[in-house]
Amino acid sequence: MIRAILIRGTLLAVIMTTAGLWPHLNPPTVAACSCVPLTPAQAFERADTVFVGEVTSFKTKSGLFGHSSIDPTTANFKVMEVWKGPRQGTLTIGTVRSEVSCGYEFQEGLRYLVYARDGQTGLCDRTALTIQATEDLAALGDGWKPEPSNETVRAPTAGPVPGTDSTSSGDSCGAMSHAGSGQFNAALLGVLAGAIALGIGRRRRL
Known about the structure:
Number of strands: 8
Radius of gyration: 24 Å
Number of domains: 2
């Protein structure tokens, strides 16, 4: 009797867990990031930090259920020239893992012109490799050299991650994404456990 109650309880828990994960069995279709094109002047006006810097390191924080296109990423820069924002020798800028979700995929050792707002940048902000930003650099003219500093500074207080809040004012991009295959695997394990528990219960009754 006790065993039957335990088996039924386990089966019920599995069913409830699977039901909670059901929406993830059919994740929304992933769409590419869509941006409203900005001129260099518009990008400069929207940003509170504009600089040229070389990526010295970056780090991505994955979610509980594996990789996602919206995983937060921070990139550390050695700053060469500043037009707006902190005039520091080093800066840290946030984004998200993938361009699918309007993030910017920085690469260590490369030099970028960065337009950031609230400590974040993305694909829709005109951030680009310096070799691809000749129009912007010509429009910007001469900037300031950074002040010597041994401390890495985060550009002004981080706000919403690009592409994750379509209701924020002035947002110029939007994308759809899903959290990856982790939830799907968890749901399959739940169904398998339920099937095993049900099979044991039937076998014991026989």
